[in-house]
Design goal:
The complex is a heterodimer of chains A (477) and B (253).
Chain A (H helix, E strand, L loop, with lengths): L3 H29 L1 H4 E5 L7 E2 L9 E5 L5 E7 L1 E2 L8 E8 L2 E9 L9 E9 L7 E6 L10 E5 L10 E2 L2 E2 L3 E2 L1 E8 L1 H4 L1 H25 L4 H27 L8 H21 L7 H25 L4 H4 L8 H27 L11 H25 L3 H15 L14 H5 L2 H15 L5 H25 L3 H4 L1
Antiparallel strand pairs in A: 1-14, 2-10, 3-9, 3-11, 4-8, 4-14, 5-10, 6-7, 6-9, 10-13, 11-12
Helix pairs in contact in A: 1-4, 5-9, 6-7, 6-9, 7-9, 7-10, 7-11, 7-13, 9-10, 10-13, 10-14, 13-14
Chain B lengths: L2 E13 L6 H9 L5 E14 L4 E5 L6 H8 L7 E6 L3 E4 L12 H11 L4 H15 L14 H12 L6 E5 L7 H16 L3 E5 L3 H7 L2 E6 L2 E7 H12 L12
Parallel strand pairs in B: 3-7, 3-8, 5-6, 6-7
Antiparallel strand pairs in B: 1-2, 1-4, 8-9
Helix pairs in contact in B: 3-4, 3-5, 4-5
């Protein structure tokens, strides 16, 4: 391959890659926003069961609480008004021993039954393990009949968290939430990390150019050569799949739009009437799950048959065998991209806020596609040796569908099955997309890492098995 | 040297007993109790082909001719032995195996061409030539499921022979279509094989072998029986054929 054209285009490719990396690294920093730098946590409160009684002048309500391990920011409580207009004032303080960390005053008239109010620390800080702070609620002027109260529940999380009201300690606790903020090292060291990866990339590019000049072989060069050499074939195979799929149907390519929408309709009717769930923006939640799982099941079942089904071709012409599962996965990806159009239309019509974070969606799609490609290669190879694979896969994919929160909220998964969710790669990909689309923000750095690990891991495993076994395919076809 | 084959051997394995289920298969595979009938389609075949040479390959059914061609075409990896092939190989083993019946003739030209390893620019430049040679005219835009078998073969032949390969592998002279087209396709094949290309040519027709080949390789039971000048090998082969039917060879999977 000693031709100057290739050499120049490799150089140009390297420059393009570096420029693209720079652009991505900078834009990612701004798209990721606060989610990359810190994570906000809020504890859950006890279910309110009763109200403690009026907080009048001279009566103090004290609630000890643990500020948690991260930077403590604020506490939220639930006031009660006895359904009357109170004119007194109420003060809430956060105390560390005798030291006041933060305080705030309210006119009782501003408060309404059950709408939470928060007090922040003046200087958010982390406390050593085991520190207990105190929430102290008092009133300088309230007379009985003109004071507010607060929601309580029980039993308290620990005996240290029992509340004291009018000098008496009760076996109950105020309903409160503790807001903390954790600083993430990823955000702190972002630019250093980005620069390190940039350097690695630059070194690798340099090495590739060196290898090319000296005519040495390297994995990267082989991949680049294969990509340029077989691009036309892959393009032809993908467009073949796409053309023949809808060839004789009247609506043709519209089925790519229509199919997810119809499935959405069916499942939406079932799950919003029969099994009611309180999920924010349920149609979009559901549609994302449907589209992702559709792609997963379509690409895997197509890759599964890609070797066994092309036996007549494989025994007659030499084509690198990975082309078959690759082209199948890519043609499913075209369908996936088409299915995103109705999703976007749906989002626009349902009034969901479109944010710049949507630009992060391609990352999730890339991980999903890479994962499916790896699994597809594994299945395609297995199918050659065990024809039982296709029937087994039918069962496995059904189980997989129910193990993934497509139409139910992840919260209803019982504690003992939480692990199933954690090790389910599809859950992580779908969760990524839902955070981006529904919440309109970037997921936390860990979500990126998990998605990438699952995708690359599956791809590596699939590619390895495929490479090891591909020479034997022909003997079993 | 364009092709150098040294001690090529190809083994096929067939499970000896029928394994009736997955459980039995797994337990047997773990204990290495799976027994196979071994069948050597090729056993120790060595030869080399110079640039521009036309090598004929003859032998009875089951002698290993097709296996040899598939190994050289890169479709199979030999169990043993080394093979060096310098240059791009175009195999003409079976025509139209990459066709998709739902697509039109035009789309199939690009699809099949891509499978055979042609580039887009090459196909663009040769498109008219393929169309003219296949004599399909306006049928080129019709899905090929409505083609007659003759039309299909004409199209496949036109695509396969538009190339200018360094090494050409031919399994039987492909004469398809009506008499007129057969004459044309024979002329095209002769033109291809005469054009300085290195050719590996398998045929049962000794007259064709004598006509085209520079040297002949006679395979028998997976081994080289004789390798040498066309006349010498063909004569020996013909003598060997005469006495009676060949002994039955084992079947391949």
């Amino acid at each position: 391959m000693e031709n100057p054209g290739v050499k120049i285009s490799l150089r140009r490719g390297c420059w393009t890659a570096m420029a693209a990396y720079l652009l991505l690294a900078v834009s990612f920093y701004f798209l990721g926003g606060d989610q990359l730098r810190h994570r906000d946590d809020l504890t859950d409160w006890l279910t309110p069961t009763f109200q403690i009684g009026e907080v009048t002048k001279g009566v103090a309500l004290e609630q000890p609480f643990s500020p948690g391990m991260d930077t403590f920011e604020y506490v939220t409580v639930l006031p009660g008004t006895y359904a009357r207009k109170n004119t007194s004032t109420v003060q809430i303080q956060i105390l560390n021993g005798d030291k006041v960390l933060g305080q705030r005053m309210w006119n009782a008239a501003e408060l309404s039954e059950g709408s939470p109010i928060s007090v922040g620390a003046d200087h958010p800080a982390a406390f050593p393990k085991g520190t207990m702070l105190t929430l102290r609620i008092t009133s300088p002027d309230a007379a009985p009949g003109n004071a507010v109260t607060f929601d309580c529940g029980g039993p308290p999380a620990s005996s240290a968290e029992r509340l004291t009201y009018a000098g008496k300690t009760a076996d109950a606790s105020l309903c409160f939430k503790v807001g903390t903020r954790k600083t993430l090292w990823f955000g702190t060291y972002y630019w250093r990390l980005a620069a390190a990866f940039g350097l690695l990339l630059a070194f690798y590019c340099l090495r590739l150019v060196r290898c090319r000049e000296k005519g040495k072989n390297s994995l990267g060069l082989r991949v680049i050569d294969a990509c340029t050499r077989y691009r036309f074939l892959i393009h032809q195979l993908v467009s073949r799949d796409f053309k023949t799929k809808y060839k004789r149907s009247v609506l043709g390519v519209f089925w790519s739009f229509l199919n997810p929408l119809l499935m959405l309709l069916v499942q939406y009717v079932i799950f919003s009437t029969l099994f009611k769930q309180d999920i924010v923006n349920f149609p979009v939640y559901l549609l994302i799950g449907i589209i992702a799982f559709n792609f997963f099941s379509e690409s895997c079942s197509m890759s599964l048959m890609s070797i066994a089904g092309n036996a007549s071709l494989i025994t007659k012409v030499y084509v690198p065998k990975y082309i078959y599962p690759l082209s199948r996965t890519l043609s499913s990806m075209v369908n996936l991209l088409l299915a995103l159009i109705p999703l976007m239309l749906f989002i626009l019509f349902s009034g969901t806020r479109v944010t710049p974070a949507y630009l992060l969606l391609p990352f999730g799609i890339f991980c999903l596609v890479l994962f499916c490609l790896g699994l597809g290669m594994l299945l395609g190879a297995a199918m050659v040796f065990f024809r039982d694979t296709q029937f087994l896969w039918g069962v496995v994919s059904t189980v997989w569908m129910y193990a993934t929160p497509i139409f139910y909220p992840e919260k209803i998964v019982p504690q003992q099955f939480a692990l199933v969710l954690k090790i389910n790669p599809l859950y992580h990909f779908i969760r990524f997309a839902r955070i981006v689309v529904i919440d309109g923000v970037s997921p936390e750095p860990k979500a990126y890492l998990l998605c990438l690990l699952f995708a690359v891991g599956m791809f590596a495993a699939g590619a390895l098995v495929f490479k090891k076994t591909q020479d034997d395919f022909i003997l079993y076809l | 040297m364009m092709i150098e084959a040294e001690h090529l051997a190809m083994r096929f394995r067939m499970p000896q007993e029928r394994v009736s289920g997955l459980k039995e298969y797994v337990t047997k595979a773990i204990r290495h109790k799976l027994k196979y009938d071994e069948f050597w389609a090729l056993a120790d075949v060595s030869f080399s082909v110079r640039k521009g040479e036309v090598l004929g390959v003859i032998g009875r059914n089951g002698a290993g001719k097709s296996t040899l061609l598939k190994i050289i075409a890169g479709i199979m990896k030999p169990t043993r032995g080394t093979l060096k092939v310098a240059g791009n190989v175009v195999p003409m083993l079976e025509l139209g195996s990459g066709f998709d019946s739902e697509l039109s003739g035009r789309e199939n030209i690009y699809l099949n061409g891509a499978i055979l390893g042609y580039t887009k620019a090459y196909l663009d430049s040769k498109y008219q030539e393929i169309l003219d040679f296949s004599e399909l005219g306006s049928f080129i835009d019709v899905p090929i499921r409505s083609y007659s078998s003759g039309m299909m073969m004409r199209l496949a032949f036109s695509i396969a022979t538009v190339v200018n390969p360094e090494i050409l592998i031919v399994d039987e002279i492909l004469a398809v279509g009506d008499e007129e087209f057969q004459k044309k396709s024979r002329a095209r094949m002769a033109e291809l094989m005469a054009g300085g290309t290195t050719v590996l040519f398998v045929s049962h027709s000794l007259s064709q072998i004598r006509e085209i080949c520079d040297r002949v390789l006679w395979l028998d039971g997976g081994k080289v029986k004789l390798l040498g000048g066309t006349e010498k090998v063909c004569d020996a082969y013909q003598e060997n054929l005469a006495p009676g039917p060949a002994p039955q060879k084992g079947k391949r999977p």
